[in-house]
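Marked as duplicate of an earlier ticket. Keeping the data here for the record.
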Amino acid sequence: METDAQRIRELADGLASGLAGATDDEVAAALAESVTSLRRLADVVERRSDALAATGRLAPVEVVVPVLGVDGCSAGWVGALLEPGAPRPRIVVAPTIADLVAMVRESTGIRVVAIDIPIGLPDNTIRQADVLARQALPGKASSIFSTLTRSAYAAATRLEADSVNRGLVGQGVGAQAFALRDKIVEVDAWLRTRPTVTVLEVHPEVSFAAMTGAPITASKKTDEGRDQRLAALAAGGIPRPSVLQGQGYAVDDVLDACAVAWSAARHASGLARPLPDPPEVFSDGIPAAIWA
């Protein structure tokens, strides 16, 4: 069976053949650059496939374009910025998701923004993204909260949201799930401004499980859990950030943002996969999937 790497090389060979007939110097230069990029991507895909077959772990990520991984925190949002050639993630903080992305874009042309928050809200069903993410985390499934319906998030109180959600999907609303309401609504509103970057939903525990080949069961709030996640990130190609905590954000917030950035970098290289595949689309028209 033909592999992804083989298909990419065939595409590169096809473009290379097209160079022979190119008479415009600018077109020829663009084609040559595309061929080089595709062949480099094929090498990356092949190395990752070999590593996965040999160890059960994905190969370290290669940052080919600037990407931002984002996690919620008490200060608002904390981001881990990965850039080609940078020695380690750069940690940035802002009160709103719009402010965070705008601040980063002032100095960096980020291509992908990945966020640890539900994106694509269901109307009257349970999201398959949540169901499949739980299945991918045996022993850690409780870290995935069920995304409420859009109508439930529109409710002003947890009691009202509970009544709405039970009527639509037969599930109540827990305190922890409702605590995410404001941030979910914020990101949903920001997406409707049509930001000119690719925006993905990523769950850090799904990303850590993909890095290591199995879920990390130790709590991220403990020293053991922190050390295991730092080791997973290092093995996954993400060096330890120079800053792990600060005013309004904790160590686990930063590590989660780094894990989310890892998946963003994989997406930029064409290696990330969505749960489900293809993503679901509800009435809001926003693809709903968790990427890793």
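See parent ticket for discussion. The chain is about 45% helix and 15% strand.
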